[in-house]
Structure formats: structure tokens, C-alpha cells
Amino acid sequence: MLRNLCHAVLWACVFIAISVHANQSKPVRVASKNFSENYLLAEIVAQLLEGEGIAVERAFGLGGTLICYQALLNEEIDLYVEYTGTLSQAILQRPELTGRDELNAAISDRGIRLLPRLGFNNTYAIAVRRQLAEALELRNIGDLAKHPQLRLVFSHEFLERGDGWPGLSKRYGLPHRVEGIEHALAYQAIADGAIDGTDAYSTDGELSRYPLRVLEDDLAYFPAYMAAPLARADWLREAPVAAAWVRRLADVIDAEAMQRLNAEVAVNDKSYAQVASEFLDAKQQTLGLSERVAQRPTATLWTETSGHVVRHLQLTGLALGAAIFIGLAISLVVFSKPRLANTVVYFCGLLQTVPSLALLALMIPIFGIGFTPAVVALFLYSLLPIVRNAVTALSTVDLTLVRVSTALGLSRWQQLRHLRLPLSLPMIFAGIRTAAVISIGTATLAAFIGAGGLGEPIVVGLSLNDTDMILRGAIPAAMLAILAEFLFAAVQKRVSRGYQ
Amino acid sequence: MSASTASADACVAFHGVSKNFGDVAVFKDLSLTLPSQKTTAIVGASGSGKTTLLQMVNALERPDSGSVYVFGEPIPHHQLQQFRHRIGYAIQGAGLFPHLSARDNVALVARLLGWSESRIEQRFEELLHAMALPANVAERPPRALSGGQQQRLGLCRALMLEPELLLLDEPFSAVDPVTRLGLYERFEEVQRNHAISTLLVTHDMREARRLADVLVVLDQGRIVQSGSPDDVFAAPVSHYVERLIASVA
Fold it and tell me: Which range (A10-24, A78-92, A194-208) has the least confidence?
């Protein structure tokens, strides 16, 4: 009897331990795209969950819709806030789908679900300088057609999307030659008079800050962009409590409220965390939230930066280490076979020509998002300078010396160890040095796939058009690159000593 | 076979050796025997094939047809390293490894063969003494040594493993005349004490006359005259040999 009781208690304990563990070991992974409103909404979701005692992992600032979407499909994240128009046009390429039920029917076989709308429509809008609009009497988007000299500059995504510039110019017959710009910089560019018009999101906080006029979409070209969390169906099943909290955000933010929240960040320079926290404080009753605890103190500039530097060094160090190890191994195998060596060097060169962001995006289907794909991409980038220098150095060692070493009775391995390698060291180190500087620079882009590092403040700063924030990442990154340059130069000088 | 009997008192023997570089025939059916414990000089103008001939002895080059016997046996192509350890090799300009000190250059192969440091040190000092090199060169890199010193170190390296055969490819030609005379003296002393079979390639008839016991004159891959230096100098068989002699007189 007592024994049975003991057993029961024991099993109960094990069960509780396992379930508690399972509960705690799986934080909700919330992601955001790399623009201000999406950061803010993700932060609101994150703080809402944290306020209810649910652990959250943030993967904010992912570089664009497709990276977020891929990450969701790859089960790298659990949810992010998407817009219905983006889902139907850019992801599904079925612009006729508008309603939530229609969309959910279309994506049900992909293991994801769109949750109820947050309540506002953040559609595209075309904004022009108010003064100019008044002078030229621009009211509707169609009015632009009469002024082909206007300098229209759009965000890169807008230029590419089916529901962006290509369709818009056709629908309204706009003859302009257009260029791309980072969205957060566009408003400043308009204010400075550098450009005349750009695409805007109708909830952008900046719309009230800058002297702009939003042109009427009188032909109703732009589809609705209702914001709503997009989540993994499995996660909704596995974490019903967390999912229920997220669902409570349905219809609590209208367009006006969103524009106000955006302006808090963009115009009043508040942090995302602060604005999110204030929003949840105000909505505590409506959402039925638990007592809101005071916000955890934000990290100081120093601890934040040192954290980014450490992560940055981890990314580049690991990638560089692997590239040195594997690059040298490859070089040692191929250097004596000219055709093979040429092929390998050519292939590494090909990798180098893939744009960094594209290479990072290509990694996602294979490695997901975060640290690993970033390290792999940086590793691939570091290969070329290392392999090229090593192969060249090893294969161009003075032939007379090679003959002498053969005549002395050295084996191929002994020749490598005692002649080719030591004579090649200076050039090999030059290659490593180049690779180090390249990967420190490129690693700032890793933030676009959620890998952190010094790119993080740069990405956030870009989304906010906040130069201070950008410099917080850019300056340490530049300093690291210079430091690496000096360090490797010193090592190179040391290993070269005594040669010539 | 006659080849093996011919090799009995010969250190190196070429039997009907032909060698082409692309379309150019360097040797055609060349046969030659080098006596043991003597110095044989191969003399000829540039392009006469003398370096190729020398490099066929330690298998840096392989004949297209015919055979090369060394130490009375065909070259063991499956055991080239051990084979080459028995042969000293020195070239014009010395060919020292720039990243190693003088000592490490000379001692490299002995170390790889597992010689004890004390044995290496003893042999190295012997060689420094034999080549009249001061002890303070030992730790210097080659670039900190004079051309003559580098050349002597090259000879030290060739002699380090106490080889049975010495291949010298114009090792005295890149230094000034005074230094060269010093090198001759060092070499002659080594030969007096050890009588190593030596194949010396040179374009300098006077050098050949001074150092060699046997002189072989090569012209475009053919042996045009061979014999003792005095005989060759006394009765050159062709205009080419006369000119080689005249060019150094």
C-alpha cells in the first residue's frame, strides 16, 4: 500500500517535472521583419506573453518577408505578424484571396495559420512632399502621370512586389524612371528635397512628422494589408495557453492607434520595449492581463554593445576557424593538380559573387535562421581568399628548391612540411587576414537572419532611421575589422621573418 | 648480362639511354660508365645535356629508353628516398632553404632519418671544419651568408649523410675566382680523405682538369671525347673540344 503510494507520488513527480520542463524549455519564438511597425508589434506580442509568465525568444529584424516566412515553415520560429495583402500577393501569389478564411484554406497544407486581425489596415500609400503636391495640384496617384520629371524612389521590396511598382505603374500609366531606397531613409530624403515621392505604409508614424501628402488610391489598386499574427499550426496545438493570449490582441489596434504607436517610436524616439510596455499598460483591462510588473531595466549601452561584440566575434571566429581548417585542407589536396586547383579556386570565387544577403537567405531552407546559417555563409565567404592564397603559394614555391628537396630524398609529405608550407606561410596568412576582415564586415548582415552581432543595432537603426543606433553597430564593427587587420598583420610579419 | 658485369667496378653506368624533351632528342643511345671512387667531369657547352645526364643518376629525370645502373643495380624506383639518401647533391647557387638556419639546412635530412642530436652536431662540426667555415655561421639564415659560404654549406649538406656518390652540378661556377680556388681546395681535401665517387658537371675545362680523374666531353647529347684530362688536353679530337679548351686558356 505504502509502496504503491510511493510509486504513485514518484511517477507524479516525474510527470510534473517533465511537463514543467517541457513548458519551460520551449520558449515562444517570436520574430519580426526589419521595419519599425513590425518590430513594435512583435515586441507587444513578446511582452504580452512574458507578462503572463511565458518565456519568449526574440528573433527580430529578419531581413524581409520571405526570410520570416521561410523561418516559419522551417519551424525556426513560432509566429510573426504578417499582413493579409503580403500573404496573398507576395507569398501565395494569389491576389484574389482577401478574407482570413480564404487565406487559411490556402495555407492549411503548409502547417501554418493566420490568427484574427489586430484591427488595422496598413496598406501601401504614395506620399509626396506637401509643398510640391500643392504646387502641382496632386491629389490622386493618377495625377503623377502628368509629371514624369518627378523623382520617385521606392523601397526595394515595393519595387519588386507584384502588388508594388510594376502593377501600380501599369494601372495608373506612370512613366517615371524609379530607383530603390531603404524605406526608413525615404522620409528624410523627401524632407531634404533629395526625392519627390516614395511608397509609405498608411500607418507610418512619420506621415505626421514630415510635411507629406498621401495621394488617393482612386482606382483602388492597393489591396488590404490587415495585420495579423501568422503562426505554426503545431505551435498553436502545443502551446494553447500562449496562443490564446495572442488571440486576445484581435481588433485592439485600429489604424489611428497604430499610427500613434509608430509615431511614439519614430517621432518621440522611444524604444520599442517602452512603447510596447506603455501600450500593454493601457490595455491591461481590455485584454484582461495579469498585474503588469515594472519593466525590466533595459541593458546599458556598454553591456549591450559588449554582448553584440562577443556574438560578432563568435560568428566570425567560428566561420574563420572552419575556413582556415577546411580551406587549408582543400588547398593541400589540390595544389599539386593545376586543373583541379583552378576549378576549386574558381568555385570559391563563384561563392564570393553571390550577394551576401542572398547567400544568407539561401541558407535558410537548409539551416534555418540564426547562428548556424550565418556561420556557414561567413565560412563560405572566407574560403576564397584562404584557398586562393594557399593554392597559389604552395604551387609557386621555387622549383629549384623543390628539386633539391627531392634529390635530398624528402618524401612528398616531408617536402610539404619542411619546404612548401613554411615558405607559403606569409602568403597564407595574408589570405587569412583578408578573410578575417571580410567576414567581420559581412557578419553585420547576419542580423537579417536573426544571428545577432553588431548588425543588430544597424538593422534596428535602419528601421528607425536612427543614426546613433546605426553607429552603435557600425563603429565597433569597423574597429574590430581594423583590429583584426593589425593583429593579423603582426602575425604575418612574425611568420615571414627570416624568409626571403 | 654484360651490363651487370660492367657495373661491378663502376659506380654509375648508362646503357643505351635515350631521352627526349618533347620533340627534341637530348640523348640517343648513350652509354657511359663512371668509375668508383674517382671524380668524373662531364664537360660541355650550355644545352649539351650535361645536367640532364646528372639528374638521371638520382632519378630527377628518367630515361625514355635504356637503363641507368647505380651502385651496380638498376635505380630502385619504388625506394627512391632511401636510394637518394646514399647520393649527395649540390648545385650552382647552393639552393639552400631560405627559412632554415645554416645548421638546419645541413642537418634536415639527418633529423628526418632520426639521427641523434649529438651525432648530428658532431658531423656538422666536422663538415664546417672540412669546408673551413667559421662556427658562427651555424645559426644564420642563408641570406646572411656570402655566396662562397652558401656554396660551401651546399657541399656540407651534400656530404652530411656520408654519401657513396656525389653529384655536383656546377657548384663552383657562381662565385668569384678567389673564392672558387678556396672551394677547389676544400673539395680536394675531402676527396683525399674519403675518395667518394663523384660526378661533376661543369662547362669549365680548367676546373675539370684540376678536379677530375676522368673527363667526358659532351656535345648535343653525344660523347665526343673521353679519357684522362691530360690526354684530352693534349689531343682534342675535334674543333668543338679545342674551342672548349681555348675558352678557358
Answer: A10-24
Q: Which neighbouring-strand residues pair with A113?
A: A231
**Rounded Cα gap, residues B52 and B225, in angstroms:** 18
Taking Cα atoms as reference points, which of A156, A158, A177 lies closest to residue A168? A158
Sign of CA dihedral A362, A366, A371, A377: negative
CA-CA-CA-CA dihedral for A44, A45, A50, A55, to nearest 10: -140
How many angstroms away from the CA of A393 is the closest CA of chain B? 15
Contact call for residues B215 and B226 (beta carbons, < 8 A): yes
Of A404, A414, A423, the CB nearest to B95: A404
Query: Mean pLDDT over residues A231-238, rounded?
Result: 94
β-strands B73-74, A112-114: how paired?
A: unpaired
Tell me the pairing of strands B87-91 and B165-169.
Answer: parallel
Contact in structure between A316 and A439 (CB atoms under 8 Å): yes
B99 CB neighbours in chain A (<8 A) are 422-423, 498-499
Contact criterion met (CB < 8 Å) for A423 and B99: yes
Distance, CA of B15 to chain centre = 20
Cα separation values, A11 from A6, A26, A29, Å: 9, 22, 31
Cβ count near B248 (within 10 Å): 12
Of B84, B97, B143, the CB nearest to A409: B84
d(CA A154, CA A125) in angstroms, rounded, equals: 11
Would you call B116 exposed, middle or buried from its count of C-beta atoms within 10 A (0-12, 13-18, 19+)?
exposed
Q: How many CB atoms lie within 10 A of CB A280?
A: 20
Q: What confidence score (pLDDT) does residue A3 get?
A: 59
Are B202 and B172 in contact by the 8 Å Cβ rule? The answer is yes
Q: What is the pTM of this model?
A: 0.73
Q: At what angle do helices A272-282 and A36-51 cross, to 10 degrees?
A: 50
Strands A124-129 vs A197-201: parallel, antiparallel or unpaired: antiparallel
A260 burial (CB, 10 Å; 0-12 / 13-18 / 19+) is middle
CB atoms within 10 A of CB B88: 26
Which tens digits make up the pLDDT trace of B86-142?
999 999 989 999 999 999 999 999 999 999 999 999 999 999 999 989 999 999 999
CA atoms of B205 and A440, how far apart (whole Å): 64
d(CA A385, CA A382): 6
Spatial separation of the C-alpha atoms in residues A71 and A79, rounded to whole Å: 9
